[in-house]
């Protein structure tokens, strides 16, 4: 563990041992209601909202200086919120370094090239292309089910592409000739990625359809006289089948009325709809495929 080089600021994340040594707090105060413990020896004032970015800054106080913040954690710090506040903070460290285990921190030992990272808060943070690579490689081959792993990897990558942090061509070059564990999944996810997707569930739904042999077009625009009159989350244009994800915000009365009117208008023009909710997406995906086949008139 590194020692802080400067006196701790106990209005933000800080190391308890450094604050005690400086006489700012006592052990009893750290255990009391004024502070919240984030990691071993890392605290924050109890009134400060705990975000994943805050936890990344806290973890940076105690990991080796050679550690590289990466994956969903680095993506979140860079403005693409892939990690929830309570998710483990993700690091990679060079293979020769041994660090951990540490509760709340996930560490992977692998080769890290210097040009793939830059300095950040006394440690290092992965550059966008390396972030994307580690986002893909974090989906362990030991996780059961190729489809299940793609359903998480592709949405993460779509979000990074949509934010403009990395391009498909640059990532394809980065994956070329790599032999990392899980590289086949990374390449498969890249081949299925699409920056047009506007949400993680929409991307996941597209993966479900793609792995069943379907080819849905994301954010499909319906035009009349050259003007967009509607846009569909996913469309099988050849059979005029729309597959749409309705999140929680679709359940408001105002949005329900809009969705109903819009879909009624499009049904009159020959479109058929399959509506997927969060509950349905989290369930048996084969039921979604059955609904799509029925809508297409295949059964």
Give an overview of the whole structure.
It is a single chain. Helix content is about 40%, strand content about 20%. The mean pLDDT is about 90. It has helices spanning about 15-20, 25-30, 50-60, 70-75, 130-135, 145-160, 170-175, 185-190, 200-210, 255-265, 280, 285-295, and strands spanning about 15, 35-40, 40-45, 70, 90-95, 105-110, 115-120, 125, 215-225, 225-235, 240-245, 270-275. By secondary structure, the chain is of the alpha/beta class. The protein is elongated, with a radius of gyration of 23 Å. The strands form 3 sheets. A 5-stranded mixed beta sheet has the order 6-5-4-8-7.
Produce a short descriptive summary:
With 299 residues, the chain is of the alpha/beta class. It has helices at 16-21, 27-31, 52-59, 71-77, 128-137, 146-162, 168-175, 183-192, 200-210, 253-267, 278-282, 285-296; strands at 14-15, 35-39, 42-45, 68-69, 89-93, 105-109, 117-120, 123-126, 217-224, 227-236, 241-245, 272-276.
Number of helices: 12
Q: What summary fits the major beta sheet? A: 5 strands, mixed
Radius of gyration: 23 Å
Task: Give helix % range.
Answer: 25-40%
Structural class: alpha/beta
- Quote the distance from N terminus to C terminus: 62 Å
Number of strands: 12
- Unreliable residue stretches: none
Q: Mean of the pLDDT scores?
A: 90
Q: How would the global form be characterised?
A: elongated
